[in-house]
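Hey all, sorry for the wall of text incoming. These are the two entities for the joint prediction.
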Amino acid sequence: MEKNAIVGQSGGPTSVINSSLAGVFQACSMRGAPRVYGMLNGVQGLLEERVCDLTERLSSYMDIELLKRTPSSFLGSCRYKLPEPDEDESVYIKLFGILEKLGIGYFFYIGGNDSMDTIGKLSEYGKRTGSDIRFIGVPKTIDNDLMLTDHTPGFGSAAKYIGVVMKEIIRDATVYGNRFVTIVEVMGRNAGWLTASAALARGEDCEGADLICLPEIPFHIDRFLEKVERMQKEKQSVVIAVSEGVKLPDGRFVCELSDDHRTKDAFGHINLTGTARYLSNLVARNMPTRSRAVELSILQRCGAHISSRTDITEAFQVGGAAAKAAFEGKTAMMVALDRLSDDPYQCTTKLVDIKEVANYEKKVPVEWINEQRTDMTQEFLSYARPLIQAELTPIFINGLTQHIVGV
Amino acid sequence: MEKNAIVGQSGGPTSVINSSLAGVFQACSMRGAPRVYGMLNGVQGLLEERVCDLTERLSSYMDIELLKRTPSSFLGSCRYKLPEPDEDESVYIKLFGILEKLGIGYFFYIGGNDSMDTIGKLSEYGKRTGSDIRFIGVPKTIDNDLMLTDHTPGFGSAAKYIGVVMKEIIRDATVYGNRFVTIVEVMGRNAGWLTASAALARGEDCEGADLICLPEIPFHIDRFLEKVERMQKEKQSVVIAVSEGVKLPDGRFVCELSDDHRTKDAFGHINLTGTARYLSNLVARNMPTRSRAVELSILQRCGAHISSRTDITEAFQVGGAAAKAAFEGKTAMMVALDRLSDDPYQCTTKLVDIKEVANYEKKVPVEWINEQRTDMTQEFLSYARPLIQAELTPIFINGLTQHIVGV
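and here's what came out:
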């Protein structure tokens, strides 16, 4: 009798993380897994035995189609980091006990760096204790900061969202013909892939962003103000894309300079947004111009109504490839995307050693930023442009995009 | 020889204001106007004789299709208010001189309250001085606050955007299964139509917004905090839509309580955003929960990639109806939308006296807000739902929505 499979989602949501879930589910079902279970809220929920039976829940093709179009994690997520087995083996004993009870032979975890760390630890512990469960990681993150994969599912849709709305913001900002500085804040704490995607907006119908500031390049407040002043002499409406993660030369985040940064919630969590607002206020105080801050906020990761079809398809494929690998006996691996060519764009999947992925961050190559540190080079555009191609028409009911929910 | 026509756009941009421009242009051309001119930056630009020749610029059907899909004002906008003729006649003498030089017989102005004021003053002055130019107003505003029209072109697309992204935000906010309060700030200084549209998100696949706060209802900070605390006892993730214009019982805007409000730019303009951020910080300081503020910002008025086809079509129709009226000899009128029925939705156009429109604001009827002041009633949903129906597929080039620019 074939074993069952289990799949979980972890870390921040994306627009296409559920497409990977659909890919894992469909491939496991087709390969004969009697049951495919879903962990609710990842490994954290699994430890509380909170699982659902996806084989029952996803019974129609329409469910799969809706899953591909539903943002955020269908199964819920967590930010749980497993302890080292030497520190606390009890967690592992409990987890493997639950997996045994469910008859699991295949374990999939869709996520970013921390999730690959989880796959690494579980497969290592499994090997040591003679378990025959196979553990495969499925990459996902809008941040595109995973090693050994050409790019990550989730990035293409976020980049497409950023390109589309940058064009709309640039149109909006020119309307009065007045001096105006718009500062758009984009996600990405340490890697600037998303902010760099603002460069995609430029084309025959759009003048593009005037300045792009990535966390890979130290941020000098005085030079920034000089640049803005110089740009506005040539152009009334200046539009700037800035990463939430830009840092001063001394290593502090720019947003740490703002008042708002100091507000804490009842748990003592510090609020780390406000980069664009801080810079916008600074511009308005220092130059005779109006200025506005726009935070793209969570919509850049959950704006599934404008996903990239390339991204949705690849997210589905990495899920399927993970199932194939596990059923063929592989373990301790992550599925990676392997680009064969930019134009025509061709991309396939491969398997990489989980240990070489976990806990490293891939940054934007500095050579892909122009010499003046204002824009991206053609290399970046050739890399990113294929990932935002094509659309998967949303299913509209009652005028709004339809989702699948209710695990 | 038939006279020429001129058209201008004024006030804040919307996703469909260019569809009205296309409607005016196409109907004037078909009725035999040799030239259709566009004012650059509205009446303010016209006073500087900055006009363009739309008959040359919009020469293909593809131009018209792109115009329907391009957000923000193709001709540029202004926030210029004409003086009273008795105060300063020189402005009128200059304007009518320029119109005569261009051979204008038909004058169209697409905008909100202030633009209708402009049409009112110009037609009044024209009548007094025996001019035969006809002046017709074309309604536009995302705020939906114009009198005597069932709704305004621009509102439906903004409402659709808000409905779609509220659903995505609600999905995103539930993902960790933790206590979480998300406060979404929606535009609308005095009228709550846009914030009310958050109510459209609720459906079989979405639990909807938990609390909706309109500027029509005085905002009590203490009662707000009590409501949030009570709601979170039943539900971990609470999502709230709040108007940027909510006011305390003493008449001050809630955002005036925030620090950020006090920052001014070099012109002394006060920044009036920050309502959601202020409330989110307040929630986080007063309860054991995380909280996040999301400002929908300008994307709710320029997110043309997810426009309502009903709205685009009606925007085009009011433009065409304006041209028809002018060519049939009408003046000092605004085209209004006249709803015949909700279900099936049927709507036509009519003409209303410009003097009865200008300078009044239409608010959300208080009876359309539930007794607990937390949500909208079925009356509002029946009113708003037809306006967000259907889509006009964007034209994607290189993975991004294509626009038309370059006047």
